Amino acid sequence: MDEREVIVFLLEGDGIKGRKVIDTLCNDFDFNEKYDLRIVSKTKGKTVDVLEKEELNYVITDTPKNPVADIEKITEDRRLDYLVACGWSRKISQSIIEKPAIGAVNCHSSYLPDYKGLSVHRAMWAHAEKYGGASIHYLTEDFDQGNIIIQKKFEIGLFDTPLDISKKYSKTTAEILPKALKLAKTGYEGKSNCGGRYYSKISWPRTLFYGLVNHFMRALNIDYRWEIKP
What we know:
By secondary structure, this protein is of the alpha/beta class. It is built from 8 helices and 9 strands.
């Protein structure tokens, strides 16, 4: 009898973070001994290529606004223990959040509470930040508001690109997610996630415009940053 705990991941079809996290976890022997990974993907794409390579149980949803039927379908033979949103850009309803027996968490690509929202690596690069981070927090119906379970910072080099930041937060997410799941199982409620700035997919021209100015100031060791309004 398979006694592993079941995790359903909600992933974007082409998200860098989702691909990196799944690929890393599938090559972690201890993680695979403990958890049974199952996936709901919003679309087809490079992520699905990874899922097929790893021979994971997955479904592509026709209802990304409310994938409850897909979650139920992919776990019809087992109890759902964890739900993990990893790059999922849709609001998740309370009825879905309450489904897992242990907990529902989100993998966010910043050191919360700052830089809430979507594609926040653009804002971090535009502001020439010296540090970024990844956070695992409990899911709530409000975007990026649930209590923080675990988080970790990483350095952003002066010449790092937005893609470099994406790779770094993806790697960091894969490192801290197993620890977050263990903490959730103990009943840990997390720490407050109040405040912080919220950004949502700043356009690339605007990102580049602010980024060039702010990186020039960073190169000159000037602390001031020309901030994009949240």
